[in-house]
Write a structure and sequence with these properties.
Blueprint lengths: L3 E5 L1 H8 L9 E21 L2 E14 L2 E6 L2 H16 L4 E6 L2 H9 L6 E3 L7 E5 L4 E7 L9 E7 L6 E9 L2 E10 L2 E8 L17 E7 L4 E19 L4 E3 L3 H12 L1 E8 L2 E8 L2 E3 L7
Parallel strand pairs: 5-17, 9-15
Antiparallel strand pairs: 1-5, 2-3, 2-14, 2-18, 3-4, 4-7, 6-16, 7-8, 8-9, 10-11, 11-12, 12-13, 13-14, 16-17
């Protein structure tokens, strides 16, 4: 039998599950976005010794000086889930937490009882803010703590535009004529396609520094790929840091990556029976590659 704990009272549930834990809308405004580019982001991962592809839909909101890159679908998924989860949480009288107890977990699965919550990877939780004028990139992610005591983990970096090699090769992406450029950044080699027809010096994730928006990019090892699928004109869409929690400053990229890996290490699966919830904690069968190999 695995470790077991009983928790009573609805307030404690938030400390166990961190339901509705998203980056808030209250913010310190930095800029106003006039353009949004939607990207499909594919990354290869390993699941029980097999290779799989994990896909996220990402957005890049671009202002005159700042931009922000974030998971386009996660905010909507989490907002809907938060409403549904609060209804469920209001009914809970007790929680039974089990670790690595496959026998009892199989009993629920064999009875065809659907999980109430699955606290696994549901998209990218970080937001990447880019100040193209000052060559500053700020990564903000959900940080340590639980519930009302949770913080944001923030990493500030000075990253000049990459040293790009531009070729005469062309490609059409969403009807825009793009040119090929290559560079190396933090241990990986990149090939990208940028379009001067979209005259902004920006791109997905931390990539920028070309005379046109980067609409497609991939690592030469094939592990990561960004590809634009839509452009949207915006009108004064705010870009800003969240202000609802304290910030814990990350010392370096290594600390941020180690914390993020720790969040993905385990899964929790929760089942409801009447007003009682059983939470199973188990090792995540999926492991992810780091996009940056050095800082």
């Amino acid at each position: 039998m695995g470790n077991k704990a009983i928790v009573t009272g609805c307030v404690s549930i938030f400390f166990l599950l961190s339901i509705g834990d998203v980056i808030a809308q209250q913010q310190e405004e930095l800029d106003k976005a006039f353009l949004r580019i939607i990207y499909i982001f594919d990354q290869q991962a390993d699941k029980e010794k097999e290779q799989i592809v994990v896909t996220d839909t990402m957005a890049l909101d671009i202002g005159q000086h700042w931009s922000v890159y974030y998971d386009w679908n996660k905010e909507r998924r989490d907002s809907i889930a938060q409403i549904e989860d609060k209804k469920t949480l209001s009914m809970i009288k007790s929680v039974n937490v089990l670790k690595d107890n496959n026998e009892i977990l199989e009993r629920f699965e064999n009875r065809n009882i659907k999980p109430t919550f699955i606290n696994d990877r549901k998209g990218e939780s970080a937001r990447i803010f880019k100040n193209r004028i000052q060559n500053e990139i700020v990564t903000i992610d959900i940080g340590p703590g639980y519930g009302e005591k949770r913080s944001y983990l923030r990493l500030k970096e000075e990253i000049p535009p990459m040293d790009w090699q531009i070729s005469e090769d062309t490609l059409s992406v969403m009807g825009y004529v793009c040119y090929k450029a290559t560079t190396s950044f933090r241990g990986r080699d990149y090939s990208v396609w940028f379009s001067p027809e979209v005259p902004v010096n920006d791109g997905p994730w931390k990539l920028y520094g070309l005379p046109g928006a980067i609409l497609s990019a991939k690592t030469e090892d094939g592990l990561f790929r960004f590809h634009a699928i839509g452009l949207e004109q915006l009108r004064d869409q705010p870009i800003g840091f969240p202000t609802d929690r304290i910030f814990e400053e990350a010392k370096n990229l290594k600390q941020l990556n180690e914390y993020r890996r720790s969040k993905l290490k385990d899964l929790s699966i929760s089942y409801m029976e009447g007003s009682n919830m059983t939470v199973f904690k188990k090792k995540n069968p999926v492991s992810y590659h780091d996009l940056e190999l050095n800082d």
